Amino acid sequence: DAGVIQSPRHEVTEMGQEVTLRCKPISGHNSLFWYRQTMMRGLELLIYFNNNVPIDDSGMPEDRFSAKMPNASFSTLKIQPSEPRDSAVYFCASSLGPSGGRGTGELFFGEGSRLTVL
Amino acid sequence: QQQVKQSPQSLIVQKGGISIINCAYENTAFDYFPWYQQFPGKGPALLIAIRPDVSEKKEGRFTISFNKSAKQFSLHIMDSQPGDSATYFCAASDGSTLGRLYFGRGTQLTVWP
Fold it and tell me: Which of B43, B94, B105 is the closest to A112 by Cβ?
């Protein structure tokens, strides 16, 4: 079975350019998460969706960041304009939401999109 | 504020030794405590998880010990192998957050042959 699919795997861009990262979650999963990983801050949750609806975007660092989930099989994370401090690995993850009110199901991560902003 | 605190930040262990990583939390509503393993260039993947109705869970060489009263849990890797070298994250969640996991900062484990 296909796991979480992210694209691009690597992106190098110049400061000020728009960056769009894409994610296809596992079919049937109803929760989707965007994380950012850096050496300094570890894994940071940026935003998460449940049934395509944004639930918590408090982790989105600035208005330059936006995320959408137009349908159950696709999500984007956009940075406009990009800055060097946005350089990081961005992970998308999906899960089958909590069952029986007893907490989360397993979170499945993609392989990440490594972003370098020059 | 970090919901889950993890230590140590890095750990070096000789092959065959025991690796121990510790985590602590404050939110008593947490009811699910997984550990994730991440190899370089890959996303984290679930290793083992525990719920607070048991104090220990073992899967092969990996064991989670859970202390509900102290609000602490730890990962023990017995007979550590070079292939175990990776970054390990503890995490926690409760049923009210629609699947959201709160991650620790991670521990980079290196096992020397």
Answer: B43
The long-range contacts involving B17-20, CB below 8 angstroms and separated by at least 24 positions, are B17/B80, B17/B111, B18/B76, B18/B77, B18/B78, B18/B79, B18/B80, B19/B75, B19/B76, B19/B77, B19/B80, B19/B84, B19/B109, B19/B111, B20/B74, B20/B75, B20/B76, B20/B77
pLDDT tens figures, A41-98 = 889 999 999 999 999 999 998 899 999 999 999 999 999 999 999 999 999 999 886 6
Q: Is A112 touching B (CB cutoff 8 A)?
A: yes
pLDDT, tens only, B47-94:
999 998 899 999 999 999 999 999 999 999 999 999 999 999 999 988
